[in-house]
Amino acid sequence: MSYYFILLLCLVIFISYFFDITSRYTKVPSVFFLFIGGMILRQTFRYTKWTMMEYDYILSVLGIMSLILIVLEGTLDLSLTKGKIRVVISSFIMVLVPLLLFMAIFISVYTGFFKIEFRKVMINLLPLAIISGAIAIPSATGLKDTEREFIIYETSLSEIIGILLFDSLLHRELSIKSFLVHVPLEIVVALIGSVIVSAFLAYLINKIDHHVKYITIITVITLVFVVAKLIRWPSLIVVMIFGLVMNNYHIYETEKIKKIIKFEEFEKNLVQFKQITKELSFLLRSFFFLFLGLSTPFSALLNKKDLLLSVSACFFIYGIRWLCLKYLIRKALSPLLFYAPRGLITIVLFMNIPEAYRLPFITQGVIMQVVFLTILLMVVGNLTYNKKTIATERAGFNFTQRDNEIGFS
After folding, report:
1. Stronger pLDDT, 399 or 98, i.e. the higher one
2. pLDDT given for residue 298 in this prediction
3. How far apart are CA 87 and CA 154, in angstroms?
4. 1 domain-assigned
5. What's the farthest any 2 CA atoms get from each other in the chain?
6. How far apart are CA 130 and CA 271, in angstroms?
7. Phi, psi of 140 (to 5 degrees)
8. CA 11 → CA 4, 8, 290, 341, 372, distances in Å?
9. Domain that includes residue 235, residue range
10. What pLDDT is recorded for position 316?
């Protein structure tokens, strides 16, 4: 039995790798196929009468680890220069304004008409308001550098702000005034602590001579993340700051620091560290979405009662995003409009809502339908954008060819 299980794991990795390669051409994220594959496997187990186990605990652990590595992988590719300030501000606006508007619309309905407690509605809606980096970042590989950079910043900030709000609402009963004072203070303290921890880890990665060091560094990051989470501090900031500190070492490359850190060797270590982070992220992400499919029955996606709420949620997600992109930050609608998928972070936060805070109409079916629909819309947006890009390139080529024939240089 053990060998069959190992065989299954190997097949999952190979299939995920195949879908990851082909996603560049199909524009469909590999995790989407793994999710569908997991659902088909669930049905196969059901018809062959194999014993089905509970996957909630496995999903929770895989989800948290995947989240850490995906944010780390994304931020390890970001460069901090004066020219990036505008991108960061635009990303922050695109996270905060749509999140607040989305929440305000549904909160006004549920608290006004159904008389449900404000805090309970907020906790249940937040998972649906956060963009998933696990889906968006890997799917943005075929975009322009500026667009991909915007998506990395936006998804990372969305997850950080979303988790911070979720934890604060779930674990603290604060008034709005106390909340507005308490949360910014936590962020400032977390930023200072993250910079100190990141500087220490950057120093360690350069000084450790042992052949096992990159896994050790990732373990320390995970440990800091978990400790920060347990004491209710914004834990994802630690991961994001570490990635930025590592990839932007030129900022602190002074004569004094050069005596402590050998930057030539550090650069080589950074390349290897990025590679192992990408591979671990790929591995955990693959198994997370497979197990997610295994734990999701087809009936959850086809439930007509849930469909009304999930379609309404998607309508407001993309309607608000369209308005913000067009009138607030004035960016091109294609492909950024479609890069608002819900996924790993949505599922992980929903699973962490205690039973006492659950709302009967926001079910697992609603969550899975929103995840499925937003991924589907991103795929459609990707395909449309790809066709437009090819048409533009061909038009440019034809103009150049015609100019050469006429005699223009």
Report:
1. 98
2. 84
3. 9
4. no
5. 76
6. 30
7. -90, 10
8. 10, 5, 12, 27, 24
9. 12-403
10. 96
